[in-house]
C-alpha cells in the first residue's frame, strides 16, 4: 500500500472517529486506542499489528484523563499516526509507541487552541438558539462540528502521514543502535507508567489485594491475559451483585424505619 493511500485512509479514519464519538454518539469510548487501532489496522491490511498497538496504546493513555478543558494528550491522533507509521514502515511496535505520546501532546496543544477559537463563537450560537429554528441550529452545528472545527487537525494528520512518516523513519534509522535500544526501553516503560497512573486513581484498601492476586496469576502461575481477564470479570460481577444486594437491604431498612416513624407520628 502506498504512502498516499495510507495517509488518506488514516485521515478519513481520524475524521470519522473525531466526529462520530463526541458529536453524534456521545459515548466518549469509540475513539479510544483499543477501538481505533484494530479498526485502522484492519483497513490497512494488518489487523494483527492494529490489535497489539491498540492494547499497548490503551495501556498508556487509559491513565490520562482530560479534566475540564485541559487535554494532556490526544489519544485519537496518537493512535492514528502511530499505527500508520508502524504498518507503513514495518517498524516494531515499540518504536510506534515511542512516537505516540509526543504526537498526542502536540495535537492536544492544537486542540486547545481550536477550543479557544470555538469558545469565542458562543454568543453567535446563543443568538442562533434564541432566534433561529431548531432545524437550522442543528444543521449549522453539524456543519461546524463535523467539517469546519476538525479541519485543521485533519490537515495536520494527513500531511504528517503523507510527508512526515518517511522522513521520520529515515531519521530513526540513522540513529546509533544504543539510542534505539533506549527508545525501545522507554516505550515499554510508558505502558507501566500508564498502568501506574490508573492504579493511583483507583487504589484503595478494598481492591488492593486483587493487584497482588493478578501479579501472582501472571508471573508465578504463568496464566495468559485472557484467563486472568475472565477471572477478574467474574470477581467484578460477583462484587457488583453483592454490593447491590447490600444497597437494597439498606434501602429497605431505611424505608421501614421511615414508615414506623410516620406511624408513631400518626399515633401521637
Number of strands: 0
Proportion of β residues? under 5%
What are the segments in which pLDDT stays under 50 over at least 5 consecutive residues? none
Structural class of the secondary structure composition? mainly alpha
For the biggest sheet, the summary is: none
Q: SSE string, helix = H, strand = E?
A: HHHHHHHHHHH
User: What is the helical fraction, as a range of percent?
Assistant: over 70%
What's the helix count?
Answer: 11
| Radius of gyration using CA atoms only | 24 Å
Average pLDDT number:
77
The first-to-last residue Cα distance is: 85 Å
Q: What would the principal axes of the Cα set say about the shape?
A: flat
Explain what you see.
With 268 residues, this protein is mainly α. It is built from eleven helices and no strands. The chain is flat and about 70 Å long. The model has no long low-confidence stretch (mean pLDDT 77).
Key features of this structure:
268 residues, mainly alpha, 11 helices, 83% helix
Task: Annotate the secondary structure layout.
Elements: H1 3-25, H2 33-43, H3 47-61, H4 75-89, H5 93-119, H6 122-131, H7 134-148, H8 151-174, H9 177-202, H10 208-220, H11 225-267
Summarize the structure.
This protein is mostly helical and 268 residues long.
Amino acid at each position: 500500500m502506498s504512502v498516499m493511500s495510507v495517509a488518506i485512509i488514516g485521515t478519513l479514519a481520524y475524521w470519522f472517529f473525531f466526529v462520530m464519538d463526541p458529536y453524534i454518539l456521545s459515548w466518549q469510548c469509540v475513539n479510544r486506542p483499543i477501538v481505533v487501532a484494530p479498526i485502522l489496522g484492519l483497513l490497512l491490511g494488518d489487523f494483527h499489528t492494529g490489535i497489539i498497538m491498540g492494547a499497548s496504546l490503551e495501556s498508556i493513555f487509559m491513565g490520562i484523563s482530560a479534566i475540564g478543558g485541559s487535554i494532556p494528550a490526544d489519544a485519537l491522533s496518537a493512535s492514528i499516526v502511530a499505527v500508520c507509521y508502524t504498518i507503513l514502515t514495518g517498524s516494531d511496535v515499540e518504536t510506534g509507541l515511542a512516537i505516540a505520546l509526543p504526537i498526542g501532546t502536540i495535537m492536544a496543544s492544537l486542540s486547545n487552541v481550536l477550543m479557544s477559537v470555538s469558545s469565542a463563537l458562543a454568543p453567535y450560537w446563543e443568538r442562533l438558539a434564541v432566534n433561529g429554528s431548531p432545524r437550522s441550529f442543528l444543521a449549522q452545528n453539524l456543519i461546524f462540528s463535523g467539517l469546519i472545527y476538525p479541519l485543521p487537525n485533519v490537515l495536520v494528520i494527513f500531511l504528517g502521514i503523507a510527508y512526515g512518516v518517511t522522513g521520520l523513519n529515515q531519521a530513526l534509522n540513522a540513529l546509533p543502535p544504543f539510542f534505539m535500544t533506549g527508545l525501545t526501553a522507554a516505550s515499554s516503560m510508558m505502558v507501566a507508567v500508564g498502568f501506574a497512573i490508573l492504579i493511583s486513581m483507583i487504589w484503595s484498601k478494598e481492591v488492593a489485594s486483587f493487584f497482588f492476586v493478578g501479579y501472582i496469576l501472571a508471573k508465578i502461575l504463568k496464566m495468559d491475559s485472557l484467563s486472568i481477564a475472565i477471572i477478574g470479570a467474574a470477581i467484578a460481577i460477583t462484587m457488583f451483585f453483592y454490593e447491590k444486594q447490600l444497597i437494597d437491604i439498606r434501602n429497605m431498612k431505611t424505608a421501614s424505619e421511615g414508615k414506623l416513624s410516620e406511624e408513631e407520628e400518626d399515633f401521637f
